[in-house]
Amino acid sequence: MTKPSDDEVHDARPVLWDKETERLIKAERASLLQYACYRLGDVDEAEDAVQDVCLNLLSRVKAEVRNPVAYLYRMLSNLCSTRLKESAGRTKISLEALPEPADSEVEDFEQEYRRVSLLLGEIPEEQAEVIRLRFYGDKSFREIADILGVPLTTAKSRFTYGLEKMKKIGMRN
What we know:
Blueprint: H1 6-11, H2 19-40, H3 43-58, H4 68-87, H5 104-121, H6 125-135, H7 141-148, H8 152-172
């Protein structure tokens, strides 16, 4: 009897496709994609990240998760952080070096993304993450607190302090 290969063992994991998981993914997909776009700065990368997180969720053995939405966003946040760290060493082409996009929506997104990213990059990451989840993940403060595993008051104060810092930075520029 031969030992199964790593690929065979990996492929043998159960795939969960129950109605509850399907509803969760459908309900959150647009918000997850928007959140990932603002984390990664690229629509294609964001779509890949959301797809990977959904597949990861579907391929896990069903475990008791207290808050599935928070779990899904935490998975996406972790994946985005990993991808950003991995891409930090890669050479990126400046957006100005690319030909003009035909679609003004793409251009508007890129301009907004650059402006917001610069501001979020100037404040502590804990505050930036709360702001991203609130505006781009469309999450309530209770949901943000659950996603980040912090008290509700901490999520609210990080949001408030982060916005105050961003306003000060914006006024300086």
